[in-house]
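In response to the reviewer comment on reproducibility (Comment 2.3), we provide here a single inverse folding case reported in full, input and output, so that an independent group could reproduce the run without further information from us. The structure tokens appear first.
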């Protein structure tokens, strides 16, 4: 039983609207990758209407993968 569709395909879904100080109203925003961190990513939300940055979000990796060294 699957109560809802798997989210895989919708990973790039549009974030909900955020308040844009330039437009003086909530606007749909576009998410973009701002910076890749060692333990995740920093994403930025920009107003779709005027392009102003209206917020940032840090997305941490689910869990750091333990890479075992080559120990012979
Ligand atoms: Zn705006």
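Designed residues, in position order:
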């Amino acid at each position: 039983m699957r109560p809802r569709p798997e989210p895989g395909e919708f990973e790039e879904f549009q974030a909900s609207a955020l308040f844009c100080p330039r437009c003086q109203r909530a606007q749909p925003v576009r998410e973009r990758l701002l910076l890749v961190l060692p333990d995740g990513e920093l994403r930025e939300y920009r107003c779709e209407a005027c392009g102003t940055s209206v917020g940032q979000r840090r997305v941490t990796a689910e869990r750091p993968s333990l890479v075992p060294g080559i120990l012979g």
